[in-house]
Amino acid sequence: MKIKLKKGWKITLTVLLCLTLVYSAIALLPRSQNYAFENPMRTDRDLPILIAHGGGNKEFPDNTLEAFYNAYSVDPRVMMETDVSITKDGVVILSHDTTLDRKTNVTGAIADWNYSDLMAQKIDFGYTNPTQDGVLNGERQHFKDENGVEKFPTDVTYPNGVSPRDEKVFLATTLEDLLVAFPESRINVEIKQGGELGFKALKEVLRLLEKHEAFDRVVLASFHEEMYDEYQRLQEAEEVPANFMYSPSYDGVTRFFITQLLNADLFFGDKMCVFQVPMKEMGFTLATKHFVDTAHKHNLAVHFWTINDPEDMKHLIRIGADGIMTDYPHRLQEVFDAYTAEQQ
């Protein structure tokens, strides 16, 4: 009986030793470059990219051209983060919501409105109204900053040669407006609509990227899994340029997070270019140096959202994050300036 037990332990130890050797070999193997080109979503300096969430939507109204001009005044290298939906007449406009109730002085689904009517009626996108399930639920409130100051288009610091579109109204902004106004800027475009409308919006977004030769500076995102699947299909079918950029939804992030924990990220093969993640999700911490360093081994960038606390900003600088998405561009720039001064 003792002889059998000894043989059993030897077999078990041998198996464990073999598994350990295989695991160690996998951990040491070089990682493939998931994004095969120079990755513009990775930072090219000691500081992360300043990414203006909705243009910096605590300083000026969310997803308005004026908000993006404000962010540009903070740092001309700023990356723009925006959300888009398609209107009834086929125009892709900037909007975090798929309805107009929360951010404007009218109501209804964006898909039920014509862009031409939004402009003809001078619909004002300068509101922060209370809503429930996307529907107006209380009195409308015009945008005010964190100090309670009401903001208007004339309060923005514009580049030389640029004037306010209107003195009082934050007019609807199209994706094309953004591409034209900032021809060199990196832009993150999140498609908010799903299903048939999402695919319709994607088709128009791709047309605009081709028209403005912007595939090398625009990355697409979506929380809809079917959109991520479509990004991959377009890439595999070569229906988009080879340097087409997109980020994964929850499933893609989860798969990478698990594999990097196990040092088995060798098996993560998605051909995206950037992870856009919160610092924590469902009790798990993503804001670690290991997560960022592992992504870099695959030539993948890591951007964190939505970061408004200065201490969180400092932590992300220390772990080598490629980008920090914030509602407060001025606040993040102050942290960057202080960090740079400390290093000198």
Describe the structure.
This protein is an alpha/beta fold. The chain has two domains: 1-28; 37-93 and 174-343, Phosphatidylinositol (PI) phosphodiesterase (TIM Barrel, Alpha-Beta Barrel), CATH 3.20.20.190. It has helices at residues 2-28, 65-74, 115-120, 175-181, 195-211, 225-236, 250-261, 289-297, 310-318, 329-343, and strands at residues 49-53, 79-86, 92-94, 131-132, 135-136, 187-191, 218-221, 245-246, 274-277, 280-281, 284-285, 301-304, 323-326. Strands 1, 2, 3, 6, 7, 8, 9, 12 and 13 form a nine-stranded mixed beta sheet that branches.
Features:
alpha/beta; 344 residues; 36% helix; TIM Barrel; 10 helices
In short:
With 344 residues, the chain is an alpha/beta fold. The chain contains 10 helices and 13 strands. Helix content is 36%, strand content 14%.
What's the CATH H-level homologous superfamily of the largest domain? Phosphatidylinositol (PI) phosphodiesterase
Helix content: 25-40%
Shape: globular
Count of individual beta strands: 13
Number of domains: 2
Mean pLDDT: 92
Per CATH, the architecture of the largest domain is Alpha-Beta Barrel
Point out poorly predicted stretches: none
> How much strand content do the residues show?
5-15%
Number of helices, where a helix is a run of at least 4 consecutive DSSP H or I residues: 10
Described by strand count, sense and barrel closure, the largest sheet is:
9 strands, mixed
Distance between the termini: 71 Å
